[in-house]
Amino acid sequence: GCIAISLALRFPKVRVFATDISDEALAVAKKNASMMGAASLFQKHDILNDAPPLEKFDLIVSNPPYIAFDEMRTLPKNVVGHEPHLALFAHETDPHVFYRAISNIAFQSLFDGGRVMVEINEQFGREVESLFRASGLASIQIIKDLSGKSRMIVAAKA
Description:
Helix content is 34%, strand content 25%. By secondary structure, the chain is an alpha/beta fold. A four-stranded mixed sheet has the order 3-4-6-5, covered by helices on one side. It has a two-stranded parallel sheet with strand order 1-2. The longest helix is centred in the N-terminal third of the chain and has 14 residues, at 23-36.
């Protein structure tokens, strides 16, 4: 819930709605939001199988599972040992499945001029950009992190 909580605290007049497939993650997020005084709504949602929980959005922000399984051995033990693998690792046979779902939902559910922002694996920047473009999104930018790695894509619904 870090992203949703941070947005709710930074923009207290904005309605923040957050989803996750994990009951455990949602319980932690709700507890954290309560402790921080963040007005966020959390709901269980399977982005690959369920319709979007709301009809229209101004902004969609996602940190989907994006680490390739072959990268597991290179990750710090504190990450692999404590973070749920469901939240970390991309689908083994289709590493772009979440981005395809997000781009389609963004195109259908964003208000005109709305934006979508997703964290990406640096290896998949151009592929995710192509998926977003194919779904009809525009003004697509790949943003680099402080280490110079492609880390985020921002796109808009024209």
